[in-house]
């Protein structure tokens, strides 16, 4: 178990190091939220392999937002929390609310060739800060992998899949943002932390 933990910490540290560089780069383009803070390993600690939030995450009784998708798919957002590294992690669950098997559409990956090359993901998700007049894109590592749940595919009727997406954090004065995921309706979510 300690070997697995070490591998998780190493992956999280690499992801945070890369993400910090991206935040600094994005900040110069008007998309960052500061970038002066140093990343901490806690920012991606629950992201082992990309799709499993901790037991506490994803278990909220009332979702912050519900985004309806195609084929009976429903994206329920359970948390949107800032961390000390300057990131915003959005957690939730994709659920097949229909009565037959459904496929998570490939459009959720977005249209960037580098992101698409790494398989189905939520890499096309964006946050819109209407007050600050900024749009935030999912973070990516140096190889173009989005810092989101990957490997999305078929969901049987009633099946759920925990998901996450990581973005540069908007300024602390921003309390709400609109989450947009291709093929899903948009929804307003409140930020904690």
Short description, anyone?
With 193 residues, this protein is α+β, with helices and mostly antiparallel strands. It has helices at residues 2-27, 113-116, and strands at 65-68, 73-82, 87-96, 102-103, 126-129, 134-137, 154-155, 160-168, 176-180, 187-190.
Report Rg. Answer: 16 Å
Q: Tell me the series of helices and strands, N- to C-terminal.
A: HEEEEHEEEEEE
Helix content: 10-25%
The neighbouring-strand order within the major sheet is: 1-2-3-8
C-alpha end-to-end distance:
31 Å
Low-confidence sequence ranges: 1-11, 13-60
- For the report, how would you describe the main beta sheet? 4 strands, antiparallel
Shape: globular
Structural class: alpha+beta
The pLDDT mean sits at 78
The tally of strands reads 10
Number of helices: 2
**Quaternary organisation:** single chain
Percent in strands: 25-35%
Task: Write a structural description.
Helix content is 16%, strand content 28%. It contains two helices and ten strands; from the N terminus they run H-E-E-E-E-H-E-E-E-E-E-E. It has helices at residues 2-27, 113-116, and strands spanning 65-68, 73-82, 87-96, 102-103, 126-129, 134-137, 154-155, 160-168, 176-180, 187-190. A four-stranded antiparallel beta sheet has the order 1-2-3-8, with no helix packed on it. A four-stranded antiparallel beta sheet has the order 6-5-9-10, with no helix packed on it. The longest helix has 26 residues, at 2-27. The model is unreliable at 1-11 and 13-60 (pLDDT under 50).
């Amino acid at each position: 178990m300690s070997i697995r933990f070490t591998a998780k910490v190493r992956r999280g540290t690499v992801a945070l190091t890369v993400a910090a560089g991206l935040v600094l780069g994005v900040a110069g383009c008007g998309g960052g939220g500061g970038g002066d803070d140093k990343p901490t390993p806690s920012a991606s600690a629950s992201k082992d392999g990309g799709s499993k939030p901790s037991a506490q995450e994803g278990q909220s009784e009332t979702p912050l937002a519900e985004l309806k998708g195609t084929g009976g798919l429903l994206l329920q957002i359970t948390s949107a929390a800032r961390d000390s590294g300057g990131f915003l992690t959005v957690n939730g669950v994709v659920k097949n609310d229909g009565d037959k098997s459904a496929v998570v559409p490939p459009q959720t990956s977005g249209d960037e060739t580098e992101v698409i090359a790494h398989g189905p993901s939520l890499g096309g998700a964006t946050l819109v800060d209407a007050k600050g007049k900024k749009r935030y894109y999912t973070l990516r590592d140096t190889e173009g992998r989005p810092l989101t749940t990957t490997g999305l595919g078929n969901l049987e009727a009633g099946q759920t899949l925990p998901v996450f997406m990581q973005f540069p954090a908007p300024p602390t004065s921003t309390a709400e943002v609109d989450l947009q995921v291709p093929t899903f309706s948009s929804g307003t979510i409140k930020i904690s932390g």
